[in-house]
Amino acid sequence: MLPTVADVLALDTVRRGNPRVVAGTDRLDSRVRWVHVGEVTDIAHLLRGGELVLTTGIALSDDPGELADYITELVAVGASGLIVELGRKFVGELPAALVTAAEELGLPLVTLARETPFVQITESVHARIIDAQLEELRASEQLHEVFTQLSVEGASPAKVLGQVARLSGHPALLENLTHQVLACETAGRDPGTLLAGWESRSRAVSPGARTAYDAASGWLVTMVGARGQDWGRLILLYDAEPGPRDIVLAERAATTLALSRLLERHQESLERRAHGTIITGILTHAYADPEEAAARARAVGVPLTGRHLVSAVLRLTESADGSQDGPLEGPRDAPLDGQEQLARLGELADAAAAACREARLPALIGALDQNRVGVLLPLPPRVPAESALATLAERLRAAFATPFVLAAGSVVESVRDVRRSFLEAEQVADVAVRQPDGRAFYRLPDLRLRGLLHLLRDDARLQTFAERELGPLLAHDAQRGGDLTGILRVYLDAGRNKAVAAQRAHLSRPAFYDRLRRLERVLDTDLDDVESCLSLHVALLALESIRRDGPRP
Fold first, then answer.
1. pLDDT value at position 152?
2. pLDDT greater at residue 334 or residue 24
3. DSSP state, residue 302
4. Positive or negative CA dihedral for 249, 179, 269, 286?
């Protein structure tokens, strides 16, 4: 930081001259860019602003008007102050006209009662200025290294803001152009207090420059965008006016955020990422107080308090390996690679957000992992959950062509219970995605036996039952490379109608009947017996749930 006039007056070389401020005492915080010694009256045209002028006054006129003009010209070029050594021209005190002009125009005017070598003053001040400039260069280099690394890593906005808060020691927030908070680093401040009434407060702060400090709010604001298209604002909160390093920090961080946005392309939008971060924070207990989650949600325009909360999970009905749910003999699409799967999931999340906006349903919507999109719907007390879910499903299916399932958990009353509701929705989605039947949305009662088996899939007793019923058949298929298990599934899914099952298996009736007789021998059972077939069907459903989902940690 450049020294102020007050800093210069505190130097030993100046104090030895017994300095006395005779005008402009309220402007001693003016920064001194350089010290200039001048014994001419028309010195102003030699200055560029920020200079502290030293003079004995020997060339100054005694005419009050000319003395006032001298001060006026110094102020006009932005001089930071004037120091006059008494004894050569003026003895004891300065002319009243000089002092009055300096006071009226706000120019610090200082007298030195003792003779002081000006060269000692200039050397002392210039050494300090150069040290400050070197320190700024070192700080700038540090910022360059930090944010270049973040850009190379493709760091998330949360990580960028974390570095900004660490380097500045102040809260940092990223908002979009509608004044919704996309990312926030509180720097130890209370999130609820920090984010309270954010949108209205933010709209009141609109500096004219791309980077500017608003003294009334204590906000340092810089626009975020690239290629002439701004999409957000980076805001740092200060208790006093920030220095040049803080401004460089804000602008460098804004550039990094803009670059990250350009590189995103197929990744989820910043808004979806912000929503996903809040949902994940709720599910992982990352927030020490549920009110923090509510405050963060409120900052992105989604009120959670005083509402019924409905958790929902969206899943595509085709997986990354190309497998589809539906009839065993149905066609299969080409496999989706990981990037395409993530892109499709991001499109589903964006479509869900658009559907909620159209239906005027504020919601948190973000990816939970590479297979699921999470939706948290806060509903007013008089809005039925079924109605809201049906509206969302209808609008989403009209806008999004790829098949998906929408699964919902139980309605809860507080953020504390959202995790339980989400876990239920995930379980429902995992079951429904395997055999969707065209419902607008699914809830746990809709899954009936499949839902029960899914919930019990980790129970050793269920696993033992499935192995006991199907073990010989699975061993037979493994040893001979056959697929009698698939034949059994087709037969049971067809309601034990042999003709329909043969058609679905793409086999002639005699060939299919022969497969059934082999099944009876391997299983040592009668496939015409209803109870035996029921037991086998339950075992197949249990095995499918165990194999598809795997054990949970």
1. 75
2. 24
3. -
4. positive
Contacts 24+ apart (CB under 8 A), 414-421: 414/290, 414/309, 415/282, 415/290, 415/293, 415/294, 415/304, 415/309, 416/290, 417/309, 418/282, 418/283, 418/309, 418/311, 418/376, 419/282, 419/283, 419/285, 421/309, 421/310, 421/311
The C-alpha atoms of residue 53 and residue 36 are separated, in whole angstroms, by 5
* DSSP assigned state of 177: T
234 burial type by CB count under 10 A (0-12 exposed, 13-18 middle, 19+ buried): buried
Q: Which of 299, 251, 309, 250 is nearest to 277 (CA)?
A: 299
Rg, the chain, Cα only: 37
In what order do the strands lie in the sheet containing 219-226?
181-185, 172-176, 229-237, 219-226, 211-214
Per the structure block, which two tokens stand in for 382?
């008089």
How many other CB atoms are found less than 10 A from the CB of residue 311? 28
In sequence order, which residues have a C-beta less than 8 Å from that of residue 158 and are 6 or more positions away? Answer: 183, 185, 277
pTM: 0.54
- Distance, in Å, from the CA atom of 39 to the CA atom of 53, rounded to the nearest integer, reads 10
Helices and strands of the chain, counted as H and E runs: 20, 14
Q: How many angstroms separate the CA atoms of 339 and 104, rounded?
A: 68
Tens-place pLDDT, residues 93-126: 999 999 999 999 999 999 999 998 999 999 999 9
Measure CA of the first residue to CA of the last residue in the chain; give whole Å.
Answer: 55
User: Helix or strand or coil: residue 551?
Assistant: coil
**Encoded amino acid at 356, one letter:** C
Helix (H, G, I), strand (E, B) or coil at 228: coil
Q: Which residues of 147-167 are buried (b: 16+ CB within 10 A; e: fewer)?
A: beebbeeebbbebbbbbbbeb
Dihedral pair phi/psi, residue 49, rounded to 5° = 110, 140
